[in-house]
């Protein structure tokens, strides 16, 4: 697998995901819905169709392909996951949370609309995510859909992403120790990435062992993702990132990079990529693109 | 059915629901969760275990009993629905939305904690709701659980409650006409009450006809609920309601009561109760408590 073909596949996943999201966020109400208010729908679209890399959807699609699972179902699960990722960005950007005006170089939802619309757009995206998976259009047996809903809600809720964001806000007041930072990051960033990798195994009806293996792979990729993010916050400029940088330091927020330094972080990233590769070695060449994904995450520049 | 025994049943449903919610909002993480941060959990509990009437859970339990469906499963669905109702109150009370300091005579979540915690507590309650239904502990066949998740997400999302709240905020700027008010209310308040009535039919595996009949019953009860609410906003005082009243008028917000007057509203409430009774007449005496529920909603004083 060359770097070129990895980039092609990422870009292919991105195009598929965006077309799927565009369709799911159409103006026509579904059965059981009254109507879809125009401004709210537009705010949701602003929050989702925003030029993201679609890394999580890519992981869902590729982890499904590893087990030769159904691509159409994987795409809907990928879109649902992206709705949750994007809702979290919309809410995290609010003045009461991280108070960001820019996201990927564009005004955040509460800047482009207003705070109430941003809160409701986030709520509606989160709600929609579960409908997308539950719907019969996600052609998986009913038990698999329930397993996905359960795993996704736990990755996203108090015991996952939302809980991690709560810990992150607390960390601005009382600096956590290293174990606290690890937990916070595993929840805030790690949980959804872990779910993305695990989802392919669930979608494909893989064995429990393989599901656990993919889940571990996702955990390692999540660690690498966050470490690279903390490095970038220290070194990149706002123009490259399309959002404010240097904020961790500005807020006195501890990260593993601030504790151990950038050299340690670079070395640790190398270890994590090796761990990811080792976890997927039983799958041989079929897993090459997922190993590339771990490398991509560890070495990304924005 | 005497008024006394109706009150007993409502109070019984309330006790069951609160015990169930208390258990679901415990400190122990579920499989797939990391940990449950204490402050966030406490904010969620503040938003949910708040002395509500639990009318929606009552409807779920009683509509299930109408078809002799499984009570344990109904209780979990009732608790999930209450999580969604309560999340919506937590978010609606935020400064960027209705900006309320009091809810049932107690400080709202963002007053007792802070805005960020209130946003995250709402998000986490919404997320938890879907996990509660998806979990195998909700002992229903997988397809029924998916139908419930789908129906609930559509009742709660952009095409239902959240969309209705968006229309309600717009209505403060541009007064809607009568049709607009009806749509707004059907979405903001009606959708969850309709779901509550319909849920019993899904939980019990009732026929499509009976599901549609219960859904219509829920729609009528929702209309009565909102109309009674608008009347109370005009006539009750804040002490009785445990929250600010007279707000609709203060904000120039049109309601059917402000359009047609309180006498019309009283007459319309009588019609709605009769419609509810007619819809349930095929079920005979078994539906008596649900008819009482419609009357209760239409004549409540807080």
From TrEMBL, chains A, B:
GO BP terms in the entry: terpenoid biosynthetic process
GO CC, alphabetical: cytoplasm
Cofactor: Mg(2+)
InterPro entries on file: Isoprenoid_synthase_dom_sf, Polyprenyl_synt, Polyprenyl_synt_CS, Prenyl_diphosphate_synthase
Pfam families the UniProt entry points to: polyprenyl_synt (PF00348)
GO terms for MF: metal ion binding; prenyltransferase activity
Keywords from the UniProt entry: Isoprene biosynthesis, Magnesium, Metal-binding, Transferase
Family per similarity comment: Belongs to the FPP/GGPP synthase family.
PANTHER family from the UniProt entry: FARNESYL DIPHOSPHATE SYNTHASE
Protein name, UniProt field: Probable farnesyl diphosphate synthase
């Amino acid at each position: 697998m060359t770097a070129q073909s990895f980039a092609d596949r990422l870009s292919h996943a991105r195009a598929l995901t965006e077309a799927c999201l565009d369709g799911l966020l159409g103006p026509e109400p579904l059965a059981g819905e009254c109507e879809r208010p125009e401004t709210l729908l537009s705010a949701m679209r602003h929050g989702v169709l925003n030029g993201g890399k679609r890394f999580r959807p890519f992981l869902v699609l590729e982890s499904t392909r590893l087990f030769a699972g159904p691509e159409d179902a994987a795409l809907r699960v990928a879109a649902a996951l992206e709705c949750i990722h994007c809702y979290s960005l919309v809410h995290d950007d609010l003045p009461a949370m991280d108070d960001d005006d820019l996201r990927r170089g564009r005004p955040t939802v509460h800047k482009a609309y207003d705070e109430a619309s941003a809160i409701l757009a986030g709520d509606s995206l989160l709600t929609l995510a579960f409908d997308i998976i539950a719907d019969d259009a996600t052609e998986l047996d009913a038990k698999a859909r329930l397993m996905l809903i359960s795993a996704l809600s736990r990755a996203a809720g108090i015991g996952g992403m939302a809980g991690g964001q709560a810990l992150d806000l607390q960390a601005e007041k009382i600096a956590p120790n290293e174990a606290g930072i690890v937990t916070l990051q595993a929840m805030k960033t790690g949980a959804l990435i872990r779910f993305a990798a695990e989802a392919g195994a669930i979608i494909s009806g893989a064995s429990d062992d393989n599901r656990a293996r993919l889940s571990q792979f996702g955990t390692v990729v999540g660690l690498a993702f966050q470490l690279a993010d903390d490095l970038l916050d220290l070194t990149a400029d706002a123009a490259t990132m399309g959002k404010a940088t240097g904020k961790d330091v500005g807020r006195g927020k501890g990260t593993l990079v601030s504790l151990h330094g950038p050299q340690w972080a670079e070395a640790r990233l190398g270890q994590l990529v090796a761990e990811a590769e080792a976890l997927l070695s039983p799958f041989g060449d079929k897993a090459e693109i997922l190993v590339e994904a771990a490398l991509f995450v560890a070495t990304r520049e924005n």
